[in-house]
Amino acid sequence: MVRAAVLPAVGSPLEITEIDLPEPGPGQVRVRLAAAGVCHSDLSLTNGTMRVPVPAVLGHEGAGTVVSVGEGVTHVAPGDGVVLNWAPACGKCHACSLGEVWLCADALTGAGAVYARRADDGSDLHPGLNVAAFAEETVVAANCVLPVPDGVPLTDAALLGCAVLTGYGAVHHSARVREGETVAVYGVGGVGLATIQAARIAGASKIIAVDVSPAKEELARKAGATDYVVASETTAREIRGLTGKQGVDVAVECVGRAVTIRSAWESTRRGGRTTVVGIGGKDQQVTFNALELFHFGRTLSGCVYGNSDPAKDLPVLAGHVRAGRLDLSALVTERIGLDGIPAAFDNMVAGKGGRALVVF
Predict the structure, then answer these.
(1) CB of 268 within 8 A of CB of 248?
(2) Burial (Cβ within 10 Å: 0-12, 13-18, ≥19) of residue 167
(3) Cβ contacts of residue 13 below 8 Å, gap of 6+?
(4) Contact 328, 164 (CB under 8 A)
(5) What are the Cα distances from residue 22, in Å, to 32, 35, 139, 143?
(6) What's the pLDDT score for residue 148?
(7) Which of 78, 114, 218, 334 could lock 124 by a disulfide, CB 3.0 to 4.6 Å apart?
């Protein structure tokens, strides 16, 4: 048996309990978790903004050590360090045929499977976003694990599985920030901090961090922000004032709220790019009029998982880590145990801190 954080139903509090985890079957891998990041997407699953079958063990950003493998698994072996990939591409759907693996139509089919059972009543459990990282151990499909690149500490490697791939990809794949451009980053949580670092790596000349909390300025500047704006109704105007009244070349929204998406759009220069990373609910309606769409000539785009291909991008990120350009530990503001996840959710709702990391 292993301890895990179980979501019994949408809107219910997490329950830290023991589960019965089977040995890996054909094409599966059992992993002992070293660490798991507490991401806003996990919170979105608890409140129904995103939906997966429940009861479920949540957690999708993790890394650990292979305990055992099922028949047919050859790319990893017991003892190997691995990063969990919560959105594995099928390689067969239309999006995959176009090389857009981050839009794979079948990436989340595994979330509907029964992968374990509660120890107390034997009820079925689903693996959240495929990987069920909020547990001491998990069993996943083989395509949900990727070897940890050399030079990346196993605990820190957990952050590569979502926050860093998303933030780095938003800058380098979606917005395609060029050296010398100006960037605004809305939301200084785990993904926002990764986005700021990625903008610095890209050579942005000015990086303006935006958040509702004045307390996050130090975090943002440590990550590479050159300026900090406390979010308000005048945020876009303040950003234009910091950029010669033009607006930034690129704005990256990491919050998922209509008001911040609209502000990010308004803070972008004519002809600039606005990239939306944050996951918002259906009630978050953003409106534009036809004249402004024509006049400003801006590009507004969504960004799923950083438009990343983890198999290709992890080695690139590892190179930045080894060279000292990417500081994974700078994203983490709290290291907790499984019992600390509910409080970490509360901190996210309150807008406190960066990434909370569950360390096993």
Answers:
(1) yes
(2) buried
(3) 342
(4) yes
(5) 13, 21, 8, 18
(6) 96
(7) 114
- Rounded to 10 degrees, the C-alpha dihedral 248/252/255/257 comes to 70
Q: Which residues of the chain have pLDDT under 70?
A: none
Q: How far are the Cα atoms of 163, 260, 272 from residue 157, in angstroms, in the given order?
A: 11, 30, 33
pLDDT of residue 52: 87
R_g over Cα of the chain: 20
Cα–Cα dist 182/269, whole Å: 10
* Site of tokens 């017991």: 78
96-137 confidence digits (pLDDT tens)? 999 999 999 999 999 999 999 999 999 999 999 999 999 999
pLDDT of residue 5: 97
3-state secondary structure 313-349: HHHHHHHHHHCCCCCHHHHEEEEECHHHHHHHHHHHH
Half-sphere exposure at residue 184, Cβ-oriented, CA atoms within 13 angstroms:
36
Residue 42: which of 165, 134, 149 has the closest Cα? 134
In 3-state terms, what secondary structure has residue 241?
Answer: helix
